[in-house]
Amino acid sequence: MTRIPVSLNWLVRRRARVKGLLDASEHELLRLTKVQSRLEGLRLDLNALDRILLIHDIPIEGHTIPSVRPLSDLRIGLKQWFSHGEVGRSLLKKLADCGHRGMTTKQLAQELLLIVHVRYPNQILGTAEAERVRRLTHKRLKGLCTRGKVERVIPIEQIKVSGGGEQIWRLAGSYDTHYTEFSIDRLTE
Fold first, then answer.
1. 3-state class (DSSP) for residue 123
2. Domains of the chain, residue spans
3. Pick the CATH number of 73-188 from 1.10.3470, 1.10.150, 1.10.10, 1.20.120
4. How many beta carbons lie within 10 A of that of residue 91, not counting itself?
């Protein structure tokens, strides 16, 4: 086997790096041209709406209307996956199915991800989407806890060892001697 000279090996690696940068830049340029064409379309729509507003009996100048921030990508994605109230109903059903033992936020988020995966089998769910669903799950559970539908508890072992841990949620009113009878809110006061 012949040995490749160091200088040639360096040139080969350098070319590979430059080619990789070129490919990434071309991809970014393609994305930016799509954004630029979308911007041009939105500007045309805005100008058309301004002209239409001036035609009416009570003319309103478009530049005086303040802009409204669009929905975030998080809300858009979640709205296409779940209908109104479905997250809360699904969480309550799962907690009712598991009984007094309860489930962790992570387990409940995985159940919601399973619903998304069953509905949209071609949807690729990465770590960003999983984190979005976990945050949605936690936020919804906190709302249900405030309304008295569910309660937060921690296993006794975790309180003794680390002073906290993974939150376990269960339907309000269910009780098990394995868990503390106080909610996390009372423990942190």
1. coil
2. 6-64, 73-188
3. 1.10.10
4. 23
Q: Which residues in the chain land under pLDDT 50?
A: 73-74, 162-163, 176-189
Whole-model pTM?
A: 0.50
pLDDT of residue 44: 92
Instruction: Tell me the sheet residues that pair with 155.
Output: 179
Cβ neighbors of 115 (< 8 A, separation 6 or more) are 81, 82, 90
Count of other CB atoms within 10 angstroms of residue 78 = 19
Q: In 70-181, which ranges are continuous DSSP H helix?
A: 73-81, 86-98, 105-119, 127-146, 156-162
CB environment 13-48: b (16+ within 10 A), e (fewer): eeeeeeeeeeeeeeeeeeeeeeeeeeeeeeeeeeee
| Measured distance CA(187)–CA(183) in Å, rounded | 7
